[in-house]
Amino acid sequence: MVYNRKIVCLAIPGKIIKIDDKDNLATIDYGDGTKRIINISLVDVKTGDYVLVHAGFAIEILDEDEAQKTLELFREILSDTEGK
Amino acid sequence: MFSINDNKIVHEVLSNIKKKEINLKFMHVCGTHQDALVKNGLDFLLRNCGIEIGQGPGCPVCVTTPKEIEEMIFLAKKNKIVTTFGDMIKVPGEKKSLQNLKTEGYDIKTVYGIEDAISIAKKKTDKEIVFMAVGFETTAPTTASTILNNPPENFSILCCHRTIPFALKTIIEMGELKIDGLIEPGHVSTIIGSEPFEFISREYNIPQVIAGFEPIDILMGVWMLIKQIEQGFSFVQNEYSRVVKREGNIKAQKVINEVFEVCDIKWRGFPIIPKSGLILKNDFDKYDARKKFEDDLKNLQDYEFKEPKGCRCGELLRGLISPQECPLFGIKCFPDKPVGPCMVSMEGSCNIEYKYLKNK
Ligand code: SF4
Description:
The structure holds two protein chains of two kinds.
Chain A: E1 12-20, E2 25-29, E3 35-39, E4 50-54, E5 57-61, H1 64-81
Antiparallel strand pairs in A: 1-2, 1-4, 2-3, 4-5
Chain B: H1 7-20, E1 24-28, H2 31-39, H3 42-47, E2 51-55, H4 60-63, H5 66-77, E3 81-84, H6 98-103, E4 108-110, H7 114-123, E5 129-135, H8 140-147, E6 155-161, H9 165-174, E7 181-185, H10 186-192, H11 198-204, E8 208-211, H12 215-231, E9 236-238, H13 250-259, E10 260-266, E11 272-280, H14 289-292, H15 294-297, H16 313-317, H17 341-344, H18 349-356
Parallel strand pairs in B: 1-2, 1-7, 3-4, 3-5, 5-6, 7-8, 8-9
Antiparallel strand pairs in B: 10-11
């Protein structure tokens, strides 16, 4: 897992494991044992959601279904447009 | 976790492209895309298939102007605690970088995000803390949300936020290079959605794809662009649908609009680009370092700052050259001894090129 303090545009995914509603904060697990407190004021999240984190803020929820559909879709696009 | 990969698809896309015997030039505007392209050798593989992809002005640190850097240096010398992202402090100013000043004992701190700067302000109540707010639409809502959360009185920002869509318009209208398609930045699009890019396809007939950051995302993005070109279409396609929605992150857009106003702003390597910057609205004057320390900064207002001698970052940011075409690359300019910002920033194309050169 890339966890770099220097890159400005980088955003990395993590899983919300605890929410502190009062301060708009949540504890996130980056999946490699790294945990961090992040700000969730820009998203509507619940525990268990995967979010994209940028500069200490969750900026979007990752859509698990879409992620699973993505590869399928790629295969379709490729077979659809080639060999015809 | 959400990493998608499929070598079969990667190879299939590449061999399908190769068969087409085409010659196209695409541009992207994101350091993370550039990193993925170079790290995985995709830039090379694609060039062999007739596709050239260059990085345009998509590195927030690189497009920050010498004047903005000088403003921070000036504030540091006036005994403010200056805070910013790690890459920014190493960018050479006209004479020195913030890093040099830090070695001289001035109070300059690297932070991960604006909230770290707020924590410093809360601890050091007898000092003024200035945060250099650089970054595109991805970072702007983090600044906005923090400003709305009543920061302490001794905190302010030097706002250097810039926004992508009108920079693309400018680069197209400058007409210096042919762009057959645009790969739009996934994380900027996460915030603004796909709609703000649509005018580019409409007005200039350029196909666009919003892409994620795995090698397969970029390759699929390239494939979708080729298909649009072949079929004579140009519109904005979203390859990164697991994250990006057409409308973007409305909550984030709302805080941006509440705190900032759109302004014209100069980008390094470019003239002033209309509607491509953000400034704090008047309601937040007390957090605007340029207003709060107007007297300190006024001498800098009309001064024209020069680019580092011999550095070709300007042409690089306009997509006209590749890093190795700069005569200083790897000869006088290195990541630990940078001449220009593109060698400093981990999102700058010179830095990325240098880092992975040994793999080539
Ligand atoms: S190699 Fe160095 S001097 Fe040349 S363009 Fe890149 S940053 Fe500027």
